[in-house]
């Protein structure tokens, strides 16, 4: 169990640090399929693991100047609102249609990131000026709602949105995304922990592995060109979209 937990955490951490996501997309299925966790317990424990990955990776990227903390703070406000709305909306909209909308957003973002040819995305945002706080809160709301209704990490929304709408450089968008994910995951893990849903033994071991892996993933990301980072992230989004669509389709058929 310890070796599996550590290995899972390392793998999730590398993905989190490399792409600016929490790593829950790997942790949750890993806990369920590899360690035999019940789905709800896996989701709760995953948040605690994500804390380790996001803390380590965001600290490394912040040291490189690749985190916009003022942007992260505004996005976090929206994320809190989105999570609350998502909890309220759960059950009102079929999860299959929510997933299809989410997949459409990811595919559109992937295409935008894959075919942008400039060396830096800085200054290429669609909106700016007085509208920026509104846009940032809106991004947080959307990511928070999708996170609470579909159980996915906000990074797959934060990163492409910050690049395409705000014009942030890819590595800065990833660092800022991790800075938003950290307090969100911490709050969620505390709440789930109080409810007795977190396996703290596994969370600590996997979280330690995730922190180490995230440092490595962030180091790799810093060594890549911005174009390569965007295109790798675009490929990651496409893989996540295909996986989510096939999973929700299977659930619908069952």
Question: Secondary structure elements and their pairing?
Answer:
Layout: H1 2-19, H2 24-33, H3 39-63, H4 69-89, H5 95-115, H6 132-150, H7 155-164, H8 170-194, H9 200-222, H10 226-253
Give a short overview.
The chain is mainly α and 254 residues long. The protein contains ten helices and no strands.
Based on the model shown, name its key terms:
about 250 residues
Describe the structure.
The chain has 254 residues and is mostly helical. It has one domain. 79% of the residues lie in helices and 0% in strands. It is built from ten helices and no strands. The chain has helices at 2-19, 24-33, 39-63, 69-89, 95-115, 132-150, 155-164, 170-194, 200-222, 226-253. Helix 2 packs antiparallel against helix 3 and helix 3 crosses helix 8 (170-194). The longest helix has 28 residues, at 226-253. The radius of gyration is 17 Å and the shape is globular. Mean pLDDT is 83; it is low at 117-123.
Please report the number of helical segments.
10
Kindly state the percentage of residues in helix.
Answer: over 70%
Beta-strand content? under 5%
Largest sheet, in brief, is:
none
> Structural class per helix/strand content?
mainly alpha
Order of helices and strands: HHHHHHHHHH
Radius of gyration of CA atoms, rounded to a whole number: 17 Å
Shape: globular
Q: Mean pLDDT score, rounded?
A: 83
Number of DSSP-assigned strands: 0
Low-confidence stretches: 117-123
Distance between the termini: 31 Å
Total of domains:
1
